[in-house]
Amino acid sequence: MLVGACGSEEAGSPAPADSGRDPLAHARVVLDRTPIFDGHNDLPWEIRASEEAPMDVAAYDLNLPVPGHTNLELLEAGGVGAQFWSVYIPGEYADSGFARLQLEQIDLARRMIDRYPELVLAGTADEVEAVMADGRIASMLGVEGGHAIENSLGALRAYYDLGARYMTLTHNVTLDWADAAQDTALHDGLSAFGEEVVREMNRLGMLVDLSHASPATMSDALTVSEAPVIFSHSSARALTDVPRNVPDSILARMAGNGGVVMVTFVQPFVNQEAADYDDALAADIQAMRDEGRPVGEIRAEIDRIRRESPRPPASIDDIADHIEHVRRVAGIDHVGIGSDYDGMNAPPEMPDVSSYPVLFARLIERGWTDEELGKLASGNILKALREAEAAAARLQGERQPSTAAIADFAGSAP
Questions:
Q1: DSSP labels for 46-75?
Q2: So what's the pLDDT on residue 17?
Q3: What confidence tens digit (pLDDT) does each residue in 262-290 have?
Q4: Which of 32, 321, 340, 387 is the catalytic position?
Q5: pTM value > 0.85
Q6: Is residue 340 among the annotated active site residues?
Q7: Buried-most residue among 51, 59, 70, 414 (CB within 10 A)?
């Protein structure tokens, strides 16, 4: 079994004041009682992109050392009890057939889960808790980007039926119905059809994920949604000023919504020097392109810059600072963990999924209680998921599945 049963110590009992334990040992006890439920891991894409055997879940053996951040031994060491596996597909290539790619990626993730008895597909908060209590890893799927539905609410429902329990409204590209954080805004947030997407997600019980969305899209979704929203892998914009992070004005609305901001470990999202480095490098790359320099020459120059002047690393304290900022502004009931392992260059002090106890030890050193750590680890996201399920049960009694098409709404393209 991968993790200790959730009830291995009496649930809700306070930890001894210190009783001689060092913070890391204390953190491991906390995570044995309340395991990590991480909001975002890109292992399915890591498997799809594997050079040795792309899309082959047998060849990418999670019982062995792997080139990425995630295998079964590391998950056990990290105290992971539940995981949203991202079924990401790129949003930049419209000719590839988004729905086909999405179905392939869901199939890959489900084959990965089915291959290992330590992983169990879960569809509800109760199922997640039952799997964790059994010492295994509850696995849910997250669709990363609304481009995958190809403007079809029927496709949205099909992905839910296949196991998706959240959808990130956008990835990096603005859609026909929602503005992305890192692209040109076309709708000042959500279009009318985008609002209908949110309503149908509420009716299904699929969490609305606002990572990658523009602040206007975030705000519109919070206004429309009748269920908790999440940020599956974002941090605090007040500390690191990048478009992918969450402004304080949005953090302040989370308590009223019941949602959770799951803080990511992506280095330029938690460290301003790393973000500035990436911005400067991007400007250099664009300048070389504008000069018409060959692709090979540009790549060689990028390699030289990175070798001679590496990006400043993010630290474990940077991550802890973002967690504590979200706690201060949104509230202790609205912060979680969304690492983005296997989708980033991991911080040196947090190299893989075994690293969660190190982060929790640092928070213990900063004075976090066991109750607060339990909410951060999994309590808050489980509560949000359960409230979304309750909202869905109510809404399904009030209305039928939406048959709306994007053409029915003014202000939505095409």
A1: HHHT-SSSTT-TTTS-TTS--SSS--HHHH
A2: 39
A3: 999 999 999 999 999 999 999 999 999 99
A4: 340
A5: yes
A6: yes
A7: 70
